[in-house]
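Internal ticket - ligand job 554, fe (ii) ion:
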Amino acid sequence: MSDRPIVVGINRTQDGSVAVATPAGVHSLQKERITRRKHHWGRLGDLPRYAERLSQLRHPVDLVVECFSSDDEIRNLTDYERELAELLTFTGGPPRVVRISHHLSYLFSAFPPSPYENAAVMVIDAQGSRVRDLTEPWPGDAAPDLLECASWYLCERGRVECLDKQLWNGDWATPAGLGCFYYLLTRMIFPDGEGNEGKVMGLAPYGRPDALGLPPLTVQGPHVLIPDEWTRLVASSGDRFGYGKTSFQDSADLAAAGRQAFEEAVLRVADWLHRETGASSLCFAGGTALNCSANGRLMREGAYDRVFIPPSPHDGGTAVGCALYGLTEVLGAGSEFRWTNDFLGPDPDAQAVYEAVAAVPPDLVVEKPADLAGRMVDLLDSGRVVGLHHGRSESGPRALGNRSILGDARRPGMQDFVNSRVKGREWFRPLAPLVLAEVAEKVFDVDRPAPFMQFAADVRPEFRSWLPSITHVDGTARLRTVEESETPFLYGLLRAFEARTGCPVLLNTPLNGQGQPLVETPAESLDCLLTTDMHALALPPYLVRKRVEPDLAG
Ligand SMILES: [Fe+2]
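stdout (structure tokens):
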């Protein structure tokens, strides 16, 4: 092992991703940011594309740790091993590759980077590894074809104990677990494509949770079973609840019923884990940990004093888990990495910014203002929508300020403008606020920082009509608190906006167009400006504007 070991983590499943960890830090990149296809699965041939963006992959590495899930790609291991041997250089000899199972990779994406010395850990997704592929000891004995769909752990630094797993036979006619439940709920309402779970979350507050008379989920210990009423509905509903194919209220009522059932079950499962462990801290990962309304209830109503959810709790974050597993468990090198911000993308490339700006078409105007934040405040305060691209990209699905579209949350028409004219998406989708961390508790009902936009909280009633474009129909918002130490430019922008307007809040949504993943490169951000009705794009030190502007948001 070299003095400064380099470990590559590869997630070869949904939301394919790669991470490079050294004792000093972590870089991570999702495949979708390269291919521009959301949730793109990992496959053979990914490695050269990752290496074009992450220079760390072009150096000798000490170890590769990879994870697969139920995807059949695990049958092609020989091909994957050949690709690693051909494309990576290994320090001091032949390729060294370790493979870990899916939920173990989630665990290492959640507990080691958390602030805690010990914690209970809950991993819940739809389907992880098969029993025959598990690489961790667990207190059970089951048929080798069964799939893990939830796992519970008690951890301290250097020690992991698996307490239980829920398993599923993989037959969608007999679904089990919270991940399957939310997947099926989403498919009933949005049958096309994948990754529509966020739409269900946005729709639910418009519905009546008891209108359809559906029962709660069955919770036995930590295991969640789906009652027959729900499975019959899945099997027989056809288009009855499909958004755009039925009444809006029907879709919303089902979303609300599903939300209620999901949240109540998550709370009970987390409480079981608390009773079993007595832990005061909880780490939570897996795709279900993206559910911001459930997370909000877990933090407010759950038995834990502290909750850590990594900013990339879904499959995309498991590459980080693989890399940290390799560094700590295989090489014994330790890791000081704590996931305090999510700017883990490739290092910024000033030359790429310069070249992209130099190549803009004649319908764009490039400025280099002495006070860029001040110029952005001019634009935002006058109803313009401004993109911001700077620094390393976010590794997870949330725009946290380095690849963001910003607007004035006080304008009643801003939500519609951004949803319809910039994002090209459904009118009901809520938009989220950025807020100066020091005043977050004044505007929102929160008792903790929200650096990763993982939970919804009430906008305090006296601020709701003042901030119509970030206040959802149920009075909540999925806020992002901004601290100077993590994002000084964004903090300075919010400060300048507050000084001008008295408002410490800006609307924030991912920098992307319709159906696209978050942008990665300066050229992609400029393309987003050109192909949507955004008014301007800040690429520090530059500001790019349209020569002929779209009209302003009302
Ligand atoms: Fe997963």
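Auto-summary: Residues 222 and 269 are 5 Å apart (CA to CA). The chain is about 30% helix and 20% strand.
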